[in-house]
Design brief:
Elements (H helix, E strand, L loop, with lengths): L22 E2 L5 E2 L2 E6 L6 E5 L4 E5 L5 E9 L9 E6 L5 E6 L4 E6 L4 E5 L17 E4 L5 E5 L4 E5 L5 E5 L15 E3 L5 E5 L4 E5 L16 E2 L1
Parallel strand pairs: 1-2, 6-10
Antiparallel strand pairs: 3-4, 4-5, 5-6, 7-8, 8-9, 11-12, 12-13, 13-14, 15-16, 16-17, 17-18
């Protein structure tokens, strides 16, 4: 499914075969408002936030739906929850999801199948501020959770269990500031790369120190 196709008339080594996977609908292999995706680096399985159908479809590398994870709030009303962004933890068998309006996250057992009843984490900082319209999600090699808190123009960092650790950046156009941050990822050495659409740029924040690292490197060192 993901193998490149070489052509006698094509000098670009990254000329790929093209596939269409799924159509609009509610059955397996069908989607309604698909949102975030991630790929398991070990198995090649594809995890798709089928947002409009309130579920995660898990596809094999060949594009076959193996499992469907349906999300419900763990309450008497059994309210359905829509996954927005998704990431796989490397050091445990859990999926991390941003859900709903981007104001909470949840942890889901990676090998779930069928209905899953979850308790969302409403990530709250020391000043009582949560996340709002969060549009980006990434994990570092320690499985710490990085969230683009789009509505508050900052990046929030949580422990692997969802506990708030810290946040950085403020609204603005100066070095180290963001305007409606969206997609983000974390490099293997801990640098955070963020799309900054309000400023029409990418922003790179320097290495995040490991928990046992006594160096003075911090997220306020940034480069355009």
């Amino acid at each position: 499914m993901y193998l490149p196709q070489k052509s006698a008339n094509e000098t670009n080594p990254y000329s790929y075969k093209q596939f269409k996977l799924g159509i609009e609908g509610t059955h397996i292999h069908e989607f309604y408002q698909p949102a975030g995706i991630c790929i398991d680096s070990i198995t090649g399985y594809l995890y798709i936030c089928d947002r409009g159908n309130y579920r995660i479809q898990v596809m094999t590398p060949e594009g076959i739906c193996e499992r469907v994870i349906e999300l419900f709030l763990n309450s008497k009303k059994k309210i359905r929850l829509d996954p927005v962004r998704i990431a796989l933890q490397n050091n445990s068998d859990h999926i991390v999801c941003i859900i709903g309006e981007g104001d909470s996250i949840c942890l889901i057992p990676k090998y779930s199948n069928g209905r899953v009843y979850i308790d969302p984490f409403y990530v709250i900082d020391e000043n009582g501020l949560g996340i709002k319209n969060a549009a980006g999600l990434a994990l570092d090699i320690q499985d710490r959770i990085f969230i683009s808190d789009t509505g508050h123009n900052r990046i929030v960092i949580c422990a692997p269990d969802g506990t708030y650790i810290t946040s950085f950046s403020t609204e603005g156009s100066e070095l180290g500031q963001l305007q409606r941050p969206c997609g983000l990822d974390v490099t293997n050495d801990g640098a955070v790369v963020v799309t900054d659409p309000g400023n029409k740029r990418l922003h790179i924040f320097g290495t995040i120190p490991k928990e046992n690292d006594s160096s003075n490197t911090n997220t306020n060192d940034s480069n355009n």
